[in-house]
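G., the chain you wanted modeled:
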Amino acid sequence: MIAKIEKRENGYAAIFEREYHHSVASVWSWLTNNEKLAKWFSELSVAELKKGGVMKFDMGDGTFEEMEIIAVTPYEELAFMWGEDRVYFYLKEEKDKCRLTFIEKLTNVTPHTPKDLAGWHVCLDVIGELLDGRTVHNRKQLWESWYEKYKQALADYQE
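Predicted structure as tokens:
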């Protein structure tokens, strides 16, 4: 299911919901353990897991973008800057599963926004596959399909 897009007072929010039939601790490890993180978002790594700490984004040219961690509560919340935007992972234990709510707070909707949202969509799905012990071999094809859907969904929001 496509993310819910909301217009807010200071921009926009894209809200993704996922249920994983795994513990919060297991899901948390896929967000914060660099070895696991590399399997679903190879350019991203945790340098310092603390408020004021750093997430690093590998630009692919030997340089890294450092993004400030703005909130971290183990097994509950991880949030960091994403350029001018902010991304939030919220985890909640529910009976035999973990509910993950991912929110990207967007300053503006640009022509690049559908690319990012399609990427987050695929990443969140890949986390689920990895948790279940499966691998995803067609990420690019999945991304292309979701990119078209996000382009359509965001057409009325672009400034």
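Residues 113-131 form the longest helix (19 residues).

Shout if anything looks off.
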